[in-house]
Structures are given as structure tokens and as C-alpha cells.
Specification:
Blueprint: H1 12-20, H2 24-29, H3 32-43, E1 49-56, E2 60-66, E3 72-78, H4 85-92, H5 105-125, E4 133-137, E5 140-144, E6 147-148, E7 151-152, H6 164-180, E8 184-185, E9 194-196, E10 200-202, E11 209-210, H7 216-231, H8 241-249
Bound molecules: adenosine-5'-triphosphate and manganese (II) ion.
The site of adenosine-5'-triphosphate has 20 residues, from β1, β2, β3 and β5.
Amino acid sequence: MADLPWFKGKRKFERIEKDADRYKILDRVFDQSTLLTVYDLIKKGVIEKFQGIVSAGKEADIFSALSPEGSYLAVKIYRIATTDFKRKFEYISTDPRFHKVRRSRKAVVYAWVSREFKNLVRAQEAGVSAPQPISFANNVLVMEFIGEGGIPYPRMVDSAPPEPDTAFRQIIENVKKLYRVGRLVHADLSEYNILVTPDPVLIDFSMATDISNPVARDLLVRDLSKILNYFRKFEVDLPSLEDLFREVTQD
Ligand code: ATP
Ligand code: MN
């Protein structure tokens, strides 16, 4: 699946439809409405062509793609059919920005994607090391590709940072900026959602929530304890969880 030529050329849409059933994964991802959404992003000049699949998750797949300018993009496509939309609905309705979302499967997934995009915008504005948000439509999110030549940088769980003490401080600085400037808690932070470039880059802002959320502080404690736990296997001087929490929130 290195190259998907049907994303290029004039008869893009017919080709997408015809070829989609040859690729099981695409069949699963690209239902009729997703095809239309992807086609729209191509027409708008956001995406030029797809390159390959980077990750097939439980609820979303990540593709590498190219922009018309030739830069790599990460395209995160949420699957409407297999998404746990009840859990998403419960979660999203605690977010003051989205408490009016409809209870339908599609509406919840679309709100989820727009929320993830807005979270990335806030992270970016706060100067956090995270993928730059580029565009979104329905269940499709387009962002900067964190990698080289369409190959993503490794996750911290797969590849330990070369200088663990530096990496630890960089991650905490990012969490701090996200909290103080971006007014967000990542809420799914762990070695699985940090890429090593070798500087740590935070990804997957789908769970990130406003600090006004009553559970935001508990989520921050969980994020920080996961980071502390990860770095325990290295010879790094680590602060206590209490001190770290205070440092981030400056209570
Ligand atoms: P969910 O948000 O439903 O939990 P997920 O955990 O599968 O889905 P992500 O963590 O966002 O989704 O992405 C999965 C994998 O795809 C990452 O571990 C990473 O390897 C790759 N990836 C995600 N975003 C990017 C990006 N911007 N650039 C390069 N690779 C990425
Ligand atoms: Mn993830």
C-alpha cells in the first residue's frame, strides 16, 4: 500500500470508490461518507495524495499523505461504525465547548474530531511541541506529519530518549505550557502518545480537556504519574508527584 495512485489525477472520486473494495483496510475505513469527506479535502487542496497507512487503531487509522506543496501530512480518520460513541458522548458532554452535541453516532464522532483539532490549535498557540493542526472535516483530521519521508518517529514506549533527564524536563515544560497557557490537560499522556524526534513531541490530543472541567486535575495527576513511572527505569532524579503537580499548576 505504499502508493495509492487513484488519489491522483482527474477521475479521483470514481477511482477511489472502485479501488476501495480491493483494500480491506480502506473498505473498513472509507465508508461512503468518509470517501466524500476525503474527496472534499482533496478538492480543497489540503491533501494531494495518500501515501500509506501508519497506524491502524481501535477507533481511528492514521495515514501518511502529501500536501499539494509536497510536505507530509498525517491524516487521522475515525471509523464511524466501530467507534465507542457512548463513551465519547459521556466524555464530550463534560466539555463546556461541546455540551450541546447531538447523541447520534455521527454527530458525536464529528464533534470529537473538531474538538481534537481545537485542542491541537490551543497546544500550538501555547508553544507546545505537538503536530501543527492543518484542517479537519467530519471524521477526518489533517495535521503535520511528525517523522521523516513518511515514516513516523518512534513512540517513546518503543525507543527510549537518548537523554532521559533532558526528555523528562522537556515533557514537563510542555505539560506546563499546555496547562498554563493553553488551559488544557492532555488526559491521555504516556509513553504511547509521545514521539521521540529525539526531542519529545506530544501527540493524540483526542482526550485533552479544558482545565475548567471538574476532573481536569485528576486527569493531570494521572498524566504526571504515568510520566514519572516511565522515567523511573532511568537514572534520573525525579521529583515527587506532589511537587511535580505543584510545579505544573503553580498552586
Ligand atoms: P485514539 O485517538 O482513538 O486513541 P490512536 O491512539 O490510535 O487513536 P494516535 O495516538 O493519535 O491515535 O495515533 C496512532 C499512531 O499514529 C501514533 O502512535 C503514531 O505512531 C502515529 N501518528 C499519530 N499522529 C501522528 C503525526 N502527527 N505524525 C506522525 N505519526 C503520527
Ligand atoms: Mn494514541
